[in-house]
Automatic annotation (TrEMBL):
Protein name: Cupin domain-containing protein
Keywords: Metal-binding
InterPro entries per record: Cupin_2, GPI/OXD, RmlC-like_jellyroll, RmlC_Cupin_sf
PANTHER family named in the record: CUPIN TYPE-2 DOMAIN-CONTAINING PROTEIN, OXALATE-BINDING PROTEIN
Entry-linked Gene3D superfamilies: Jelly Rolls (2.60.120.10)
Tagged with keyword Oxidoreductase: no
Top-rank lineage group of the source organism: Bacteria
Cupin type-2 domain mapped to chain residues: 49-115
Length: 121
């Protein structure tokens, strides 16, 4: 995997919304920085916007760490066996192997940043 040789500067409007597998009901993301060919060596950075009632199904990542940082809206996060309300300025660090799912339980879009990186070996 070869990282980009130059800095990348883009506008959010240049990036299309996508609905990834396991995301349902208007759970959309813009992939802003992607790990792999021509991107970052390890970081995946995206902004997500979940419409009311949208969600990501329960899942875990065997070898990735994640951070969700809420910018607006509210939702219910299941992490392991706990359920917690996520609102503006809430954030969570999700270690590898921890099951998690997120539902927009609010009346407006739930907008949050997602930062993902592989576990160092």
């Amino acid at each position: 995997m070869t990282p980009a040789k130059d800095a990348v500067l883009r506008e959010l409007a240049e990036v299309l919304w996508v609905e990834s597998p396991g995301h349902h009901g208007g759970a959309l993301s813009k992939i802003l920085v992607e790990a792999g060919e021509g991107g970052s060596r390890v970081i995946d950075y995206r902004i997500s916007s979940y419409a009311p009632a949208a969600h990501v199904a329960l899942h875990d990542h065997a070898a990735k760490e994640q951070i969700y940082h809420v910018l607006s809206g509210e939702g219910l996060l299941t992490i392991g066996t706990r359920k917690v309300v996520m609102r503006r300025d809430s954030y969570v660090f999700i270690p590898p192997g921890v099951p998690h799912e997120l539902h927009n339980t609010g009346l407006a879009n739930l907008v949050f940043l997602v930062i993902t990186a592989p576990v160092a070996v």
